[in-house]
What does this fold into?
Amino acid sequence: MSGGRKNMADQTLNTRTLPDLWKRLDKAWAVVVLIPLAVLIFDAPMFQPVVSTAAKAFGGTVPIILFAITAVAYVKATGAENLIAKAFTGNPVRMIIMAALLGGLSPFCSCEVIPFIAALLAVGAPLAAVMAFWLASPLMDPAMFFVTSGELGLAFAIGKTVAAVGLGMLGGFATLAFAKSAVFADPLREKPQIGGCCGVKEPFQSTPVWAFWREAERRVAFRESFIDNALFLAKWLMIAYLFEALMIEYETTQYVAQFLGGESVFTIVLAALVGMPAYLNGYMAVGLMGGLVEQGMNPGAAMSFVIAGGVSSIPAAVAVWALVKPRVFAAYLGFALTGAILAGIAWSMVA
It folds into this structure.
């Protein structure tokens, strides 16, 4: 009888534990393990070429990753993030321009934007400036710039930065122009869901301390930011390079490149439409786009894909959805699609 009770207890424990373990499991790291494992099981001769190609690509980005995460950790530890808040005071036009510029250069991840923007909206920051920051912020940050530069070239990284700022201004000025319309009137949800998905911590509230190493708390902030970003970049870039390696070794990149390799505006529009629902992570997309552009993908389509997808990716979209009403969210997506197509057309003309 006691044995039966023990078995029942074990089953109950397993029932409660497995879902909990699944929730705690980092799905991205699981994919990093499962891709090579699947190749080994189903096509063992391809295991070595796939892993070798992915490892070589990842190894080439390590110096860039180290520089990027060090730069971001320095910004976090010094408290330089507080300088961003100054963009949301003063003349509306100046606010939009500064918000777009800082959004395209800030080290915020999509999750960290949520409490920051919520606080700004709560104290009455204009929606136009917030929209400019919101649109530009998911597209570029110091880490993204260096990773993009290493994979797609410095020119593409600069072009994407300009596109991010331009998209922010497009959305900001459009919101300002139609501020009194039904779309943007009373934009906030009654109970905004303020939170995050990446361990959001409030930035230091004092004046930036550039020699951060003199304070223990700031040294801890530097170390935590460095480790968190290192793990974040590592797992997503590993996934990207594993998928890229699969496409290269199985010779599928040419078909995708041909699909988005035309020079017409339709190709750029199609890339934006595909990018919006298909995008998983900006760093993963950079690796994939690098391989596809080398195989002949239209550079303008690549730019359109990363711009549209970056703004509509789940973390970025959730940040907006959590705070504003659906009609404002729809405008946000509309700005993203329009800006992505314009950026793709412009880049195809200069690339």
